[in-house]
Amino acid sequence: MILKNIFAALLIMAAEISASAHSVENVTIDGSKGKLAARVELPQLGNDKKCNIVILCHGFSGNMNGPLHDAIANNLLEKGIGVVRFDFNGHGASEGAFKEMTVPNEIEDLKKVIEWTLDQTFTRDISLVGHSQGGVVAAMTAGQIGYPQIKALALMAPAAALRDDALRGSTMGAVYDPLNVPAEGIKLPWGGQILGRDYITTALSLPIYETAALYTGPTFIIHGTADRVVPYTYGERFNQVIKGSEINLVDKDDHVFSHTNDETASKVADFFSHSLSKK
After folding, report:
1. Is 12 part of a structural domain of the chain?
2. CATH code for position 46
3. Exposure of 66 by Cβ count < 10 A (0-12 exposed, 13-18 middle, 19+ buried)?
4. How far is CA 52 from CA 124, 157, 161, 183, 186, in A?
């Protein structure tokens, strides 16, 4: 019993030491539609006071928090990699109206977060990870900025289906005529949110794969085979167009990796750790 108590105390002490080695700071960053809520999480820094930074991009109607994003951040921090996560315009605690959100202005948001992060003294280099629509935003931004400015890229259930959804006139349960979208937008059947007309009209011709294909750096794609929001074939298409990318299909998992949350986060962190350790 005494040994068990000692062991338990040591585990608690180790956890406290590990937690104290990480710093967390909430900040605001100028975005495309106002201030973006963001959080900087850094591991214990070395003598040069710098670390690799991964910027995390959430999905449609989501925010920077949640089990998957928390697990990714924690796994990256344990590997000595810093994390900057933020809410896109019209989402979470950021300014802007959801109705005015589009993929192009989310790309602008991400570029402004990248610019801000590059200006910080703790930044060695920048990589991107995006889930769902955030995966599309990360992929297109990486294609526009290029390698090695973006050191590595991870796409989680990347939602390139959003363009096909717009062409079909069916987005997240809302049905509409894509060639005659009302000026007031489309009401989504959940949450009372309004999908803006600009979101749909820009999605119709969004060059998702063409832009993503311009990225030549290390790329990891992970997708659940039971994803009913974005079928895994969209992840396979990214794997085809981004040369040298690798893909991991998670058997029977869903769009948010609810069955393999920890394992998926670990795979993403392992990819960045391996890719960023290369000279």
Report:
1. no
2. 3.40.50.1820
3. middle
4. 5, 24, 31, 43, 41
